[in-house]
Specification:
By secondary structure, the protein is an alpha/beta fold. The chain folds into 2 domains: 112 residues, Rossmann fold (3-Layer(aba) Sandwich); 67 residues, no CATH class. Helix content is 56%, strand content 12%. It has 10 helices and 5 strands. The longest helix is centred in the middle third of the chain and has 23 residues. It is globular and about 50 Å long.
């Protein structure tokens, strides 16, 4: 009997939307989760080919003498120049895409989730079968980020939000929307999507 390939489902949402919390609920249901942003950081610190390309584009200072990623230096270079943002994305996102494909082939589940903040912005959503967007009011998102990361002020958070696709646009592009405000329960919304994706997978794969 041939192994059925799992459906590839993306889960995204702007900063402070709560996509990681939602992903954890899916994880409790037994669904494998690929945390793209965490893997990107790991690859930037461990993938020798990617490390070499980062050094070639941003200088040897991108890494410390101990070989660790110089996050402060790189962040200053990238966020101060839109062209540098484009360059780092062009280096990191293909590496993450290849890493995800390799990971996905080893999973045994009706569907798997790829959690990433910039699925639509990078175009990586095109390699996925369905997209879930976690949506929340802007003021609530800002207050959540400030509560979990007191070092960031509202100006810094808004600068990150400005680089992300507006929630309304993401909702139009997404196949499923989870509303993570303060007046809707998360678990029933997740369960409804979980049932839809599980049964859809059975139908698609016979």
């Amino acid at each position: 009997m041939n192994k059925i390939s799992p459906k590839l489902i993306g889960i995204t949402g702007g900063i402070g939307s709560g996509k990681t919390t939602v992903s954890k609920i899916f994880s409790i249901l037994g669904i494998p989760i690929y945390y793209a942003d965490d893997r990107a950081k790991w690859l930037m610190a461990n993938n020798l080919d990617l490390i070499q390309k980062i050094k070639e584009n941003f200088g040897e200072e991108s890494y410390t003498e101990n070989g660790e990623l110089n996050r402060k230096y790189l962040a200053e270079k990238v966020f101060s120049d839109p062209e540098n943002t484009t360059i780092i994305n062009a280096l990191v996102h293909p590496a993450v895409g290849a890493d995800f494909e390799n990971w996905a082939t080893s999973q045994n589940s009706p569907y798997i989730l790829k959690e990433a903040a910039l699925l639509f912005e990078t175009g990586s959503y095109k390699q996925l079968d369905k997209i879930i967007n976690v949506s929340a009011p802007l003021k609530l998102r800002i207050s959540r980020v400030m509560a979990r990361d007191p070092q960031r002020d509202e100006k810094q958070i808004n600068a990150i939000i400005d680089k992300q696709m507006p929630d309304e646009e993401k909702n139009k592009k997404a196949d499923f929307i989870i509303k993570n405000g303060e007046n809707k329960l998360l678990i029933p919304q997740v369960l409804k999507i979980h049932q839809a994706l599980s049964s859809q997978n059975q139908n698609l794969n016979g």
